[in-house]
Design brief:
Blueprint: H1 31-52, E1 56-57, H2 69-72, E2 75-88, E3 93-106, H3 112-120, E4 125-131, H4 133-137, E5 141-142, H5 148-168, E6 173-177, H6 185-200, E7 206-210, H7 218-224, H8 234-242, E8 248-252, E9 270-276, H9 286-296, E10 305-309, H10 318-339
Helix pairs in contact: 1-10, 5-6, 6-8, 9-10
């Protein structure tokens, strides 16, 4: 089937699970009640995607407060009690972050519960997202390793351990989220891709890397205003990514200033093309989705195109996110009719 659909990963959390329309949203309950609420929200996320015609579904990241720190919470060697302020993405914005204070190792499984709940309750192919090693070290303070690269590879080993376990849980694709890849271009070439490949080493399920200009939050939208009329950061990293072992690349295309022809630098990859803008509350039409797919198809073989969202939808209003899901499914269906 041409133009299968997926989402970047996250969906908004229901109001009864966490504070709405907010990143790092506080949970509304705790203990066993919170565990049940996370499970219920995961089932709801799956149902919404299935109803919208999404082919490769996710658990919506409903059990994670943040896409990076949801992983870090199960890692020994991290001090969450004494957070420090740190600049994120080359000081694009500040955040209070935990500190690495000892050798890193997993305290057992990280995402077993949500992966198994999702696998049990959908027959569709299942994608699970993990933060990439470069993005992790850009979101945590180092008080132990004294070397960004050494710490990144330490995290890559832990990610690989969890990714293999997720594959054993029945996950069909592991996607590593690396927004830091469009900030530290030299480091991507020097060691970032190697660290990413270490995280994916030995996997036999599908693999993808999601690279983007970030959620639709003010810090990101303000930064985008400084980037000029064309965003060409990917021109430096796509050739190196194309040579990597990662099979798919997820990239924003809808309302993006990334020149669409840069996708031609990924001839060896399947492209998850973002056809839904998560930085706008305007709901796309099916026609809008078809237009983006048509533009992508000028530079990527149709058989290598997956339709997706530009980024996660965690901070969005639920009604808007759900309408955008429906537009994604309807648009991909219309594109199959027109472009087959």
């Amino acid at each position: 089937m041409l133009f299968p659909t997926t989402i970047a990963g996250s969906l908004p959390k229901p109001e009864w699970l966490a504070e709405p329309n907010t990143l790092w949203a506080p949970w509304k309950s705790q203990g066993a009640e919170l565990a049940r609420a996370k499970r219920d929200a995961t089932l709801l996320a799956l149902k919404l995607q299935e109803d919208a015609g999404i082919d490769l579904v996710t658990e919506g990241e409903q059990a994670r407060q943040h896409f990076v720190h949801g992983f870090l919470e199960k890692v020994e060697g991290i001090d969450f009690a004494h957070k420090v302020e740190m600049g994120i993405r080359k000081d694009r914005y500040k955040a209070m972050v935990p500190q690495v204070v000892a050798p890193l190792q997993l305290r057992g499984r990280v995402h077993a519960d949500e992966a198994r709940v999702a696998r049990t309750h959908t027959t569709r192919k299942l994608k699970f997202t993990l933060p990439g090693p470069m993005t992790i070290i850009d979101t945590i303070a180092d008080k132990y390793y004294g070397d960004r690269v050494k710490m990144a590879f330490a995290f890559a080993e832990l990610l690989n351990e969890e990714a293999k376990a997720l594959e054993a849980d029945g996950v069909d694709m592991i996607q590593f989220d690396e927004p830091a890849f469009n900030v530290y271009m030299d480091e991507v070439r020097d060691w970032g891709i190697k660290a990413l490949e270490r995280a994916a080493e030995g996997l036999t399920c599908g693999t993808a890397v999601h690279i983007c200009y970030g959620y639709g939050i003010k810090a990101n939208t303000d930064w985008k205003e400084t980037l000029g009329s064309e965003w060409r950061q990917y021109e430096e990293t796509f050739p190196a990514i194309d040579k990597s072992a990662i099979q798919q690349v997820a990239i924003e295309c809808r309302n993006s200033k990334v020149p669409i022809e840069l996708l031609g630098l990924l001839p060896g990859k399947i492209v998850q093309a973002g056809v839904i803008d998560v930085a706008s509350d305007v709901v796309e039409t099916a026609e809008d989705v078809v237009q983006v797919i048509e533009a992508v198809a000028k530079f990527v073989p149709k058989s290598n195109i997956i339709a997706t969202t530009n980024c996660g939808m965690a901070p969005m209003r639920r009604d808007i996110a759900e309408a955008k899901l429906m537009a994604l499914g309807a648009g991909a269906s219309l594109a199959r009719q027109r472009l087959a």
